[in-house]
Amino acid sequence: MKSLLAVLALTVLAPAQTPTTPERRVAITIDDGPVVNELKDLANFQRISAGLIASLQAEKVPATIFINERQLNVQGQRDGRAAVLAQWLDAGYDLGNHTYSHPSLNKVPLTEFEDNIVRGEVIMRPLIEERGRQLVWFRYPFLDSGMSAEVHQAVLDFLRARHYRVAPVTVDYKDYIFAGAYSRKLRAGDPETAEKIKQAYLEYVDAGFASAEKISRDLLGYELPQILLIHCSELNSVTLRDSIARMRKRGYSFVSLDEAMNDPAYQRPDTFTGPGGSWLEHLGDAMGKPVEDDMESGIPKWITTRPPR
Ligand SMILES: [Zn+2]
How far is ligand 1, taken at its centre, from the CA of residue 225, in Å? Predict the structure, then answer.
């Protein structure tokens, strides 16, 4: 009787999924918001931002957007640009601090970096708090978290005192390389090549996830909830829905950053110093099993080669 009940329970509880589709989770994070490298044209800035928001809304997918407030500081456009932050918040998305002007902690003095953190929340913090929400997340520009243990810990203490949590990255398929090439081709009046770059980029989404999944299994014995890093670019404003479709096809469901980080693996102490790199690479180093998540060298050369100026 007992075993029959057990069988019944298994039958009832077993998820209705084909065995080849693993259950996977990912939190999407989008850096250099509201829009990267769009410091002149307000209409372009609004169009790209609206494309990102509409894509996420259509897919009903949560996301955290990391803001550089320098991109709001354009004379004559400050109100129009700040309004975009309110749009993100009112659409239900979380905003995080990515510093004011995107300096590398590995290259600027500690006090300058801390100043840049404080300047990075001047507009965003009141917008978040007047909606009864909290500013929680911080992400290091270039993922550079200090070259020495002292500097690393000093910034962690500084962030903790301001109630920030550091957002790691596990999936990074170098979208900005495709995005730069895409926008250059569009502006050069070459939409055919831009379209080819777009297709190559979408192919690369799978390569990026496959790499992180494998490293995760090799180091942890399971796939932890992944944290994807992409950027607030023109390319993503027109491809995000297709990227999300590819993730769904790999078995992903979409969770908040907070939910992803509930996985015990993310509770490990954060002691990594050195140049950038993904959280999985840092984990490999900490475990004495170095791994390389080299997504840069796999990008086709015709995309990475910049035209001579
Ligand atoms: Zn960034």
Answer: 21
For 243-270, how does the pLDDT look when each residue is reduced to its tens digit (9 = 90+)? 999 999 999 999 999 999 999 999 998 8
How far is C-alpha 137 from the geometric centre of its chain's CA atoms?
A: 12
95 CA → ligand 1 middle, Å? 14
* Three-state secondary structure call for residue 139: coil
What gap in Å lies between CA 226 and CA 28, rounded to an integer?
9
Q: Are 69 and 120 in contact (CB under 8 A)?
A: yes
Tell me the CA end-to-end span of the chain in Å, nearest whole number: 78
d(CA 34, CA 241): 18
Q: Residue 11's pLDDT is what?
A: 47
Tell how strand 24-33 and strand 252-254 pair up. Answer: parallel
DSSP string, 40-100: S-HHHHHHHHHHHHHHHHHHT--EEEEE-GGGG--TTTHHHHHHHHHHHHHTT-EEEE--S
Most distant CA pair in the chain, distance: 78
Q: Give the distance (Å) from ligand 1 centre to CA of residue 7.
A: 50
Distance 57 CA to ligand 1 centre (A): 23
pLDDT digits (tens, 9 = 90+) for 51-89: 999 999 999 999 999 999 999 999 999 999 999 999 999
Q: How close is the Cα of 5 to the center of ligand 1, in Å?
A: 53
3-state secondary structure of 9: helix
Say how far apart CA 93 and CA 74 lie, in whole Å.
24
